[in-house]
Design brief:
The protein has a single domain, classed as Orthogonal Bundle (MetI-like fold), CATH 1.10.3720. It is globular, with a radius of gyration of 22 Å. Helix 3 packs parallel to helix 6. By secondary structure, it is mainly α. The longest helix has about 40 residues.
Length: about 250
Amino acid sequence: MPNSVIRGISLLAFMLMWVVLAKLAGDPSVLPSPGDLVQPFLSELASGALLYNLGVTVLRVIAAFCLAMSIGVVLGLLMGTRPGLDRWLDPWLVVFLNLPALVLIVLCYLWIGLNETAAIVAVTLNKIPNVTTIIREGARALNPELKAMAQVFRMRRTTYLRHVILPQLAPFIAGASRSGIAVIWKIVLVVEFLGRSNGIGFQIHLYFQLFDVAMVLVYSLSFIGFMLVVEWLLLQPAERRVRAWRLA
């Protein structure tokens, strides 16, 4: 059975379960059914508020994702290939891995201010340790025979990095990307919830204060739907592509 059919059936099963739970609850103000969300969704879409806040959140996710991946890949590669540097930086890595996301967010807002820079920095700092850890393990698993071959042929550093290192790290980078995007957008929502004046997280906070469950679900599901499209159309195909050479 094709994956697309399986996903469709799975989502339909989820919707059916939602409908049943909404019927059992018997109160749309507590748990509205999917049909109860159509009108609020169309209203927010027509007003432009949904697309505006979705766009703001997506831009923050992209900015934090690019920064976290760039810094994390470099740090992970250095720590994985240089044991001396790894010994010095490993305690830092352990500290940041165990530092709660909420603490970093609050500290960034207190130190930098309630602005866009603090929001992006907070999200980036939360994700860099995870990316670094994954890439470090990939760097430790690099094939020493390929390195010896590159030295024999006196391969230039840029060529060695492009044709020897990166293909071996590609599955780890893909894995870090998939887990990274899943974690980053959730942290972005918390950042917006706590200290921004726009974005999906801010809207969820607003309607939480108004006890409007329907609008909380409209904004939440809109962004979840967008991220599912990104996952299925971009991240999963990219991961399959970078893993293909191992199966050839």
